[in-house]
Amino acid sequence: MDPAGGCPHADNARLLAENAVAEIVLPGEVRGVAVLGHEALKEFLSHPDVAKGAEHFTALREGAIADGWPLRTFATVRGMTTADGADHRRLRSLVSGAFSPRRVEALRPRIETLTAELLDDLAAAAVAGDGIAELRAHFALPLPMGVICELLGVDTEYQDRLHCLSGQVVSTSIGPEEAVAANREMAEVLAAVAAARSEKPGDDLTSALIAARAEDGERLSPQELIGTLLLMIIAGHETTLNLITNAVRALCAHRDQLELVRAGKAGWPDVVEETLRWDSPVSFFPFRYPTRDLTLDGTTIPRGTPVLAGYSAAGRDPATYGPDAARFDVTRRARHLSLGHGAHFCLGAPLARMEATIALERLFTRFPGLDLAVPESELPRQAGFVGNSVAELPVRPMG
Length: 399
What we know:
3-stranded antiparallel sheet, alpha+beta
């Protein structure tokens, strides 16, 4: 795996033509596997002999993984993403109420208000920038970041730093010393957030998590609280940021699909779902581990091997979506795996879908002629192979 990342689709197509499962080498010469095919990934994500706990990671258990390994946090953070069985159900139950359909729908007015404010900011930025504005910085980032921070009770003073640290924590190209420093600072910032909410509780998820007890009366441990906040911050804004960015890129490159939406032949939710399939905001997500030698689509994955879920590859698998799998088609209405599958299905999926749907509808209604300010080929890619998007998206809102 190239630590620097880049557009994954050409390599994914080449590997999928060979097999649905690929042996890979992760940074630091750590051997692993990527599951690329849709059906193989679906089976793997819900397989009873696959776990997420770091105790199942053979190389980590044997001391072969350095503290500064750029992917170490994915394996060792304490929270839902590294918990199994009853422990996972306990942690998930403590936060699931905040993402119930009723609670998510209650956020709609705030999301609509924030979207309108950010569209004004985008217009102002374009005026100041001779017609060009950076869409990620002025719109696609502050919308989900603002929503998740309000939900968690995170003061605005922390938001910019948390975004910067989130990018470093999930980067696969960061150096060992930078990785250790970023994770340490992220834990310190989140500890400060938790301390503020502990001292002055509010009507927010962090305060609720501090006060909550599971059915057995157990509270979150300090490590679990920080791990849960880390997950909520990163997953709560990075993926939606990429989703909005990728959808705007797709619609600008496929104006015929945008016209189908405007003609009422497809809806904005269809745009969101097709973007999730066609250009998943997460390319390869770490880690799961077989708890026994596991044969998947004819490939044996040894017990304890770190496995990446290849969402960007699965979304364009011709075996599932046909020979035109690589075509962006908002009328396709096909199921996908980009928000997960099984017990670890994305808890924030309804919120991400709502944010992206409102954002795209309001953006292209306010700026019907919006287009990219530079050719797609010149857009710099995000560093790393976990997230899947561009690092910048300069646009001309007025067309």
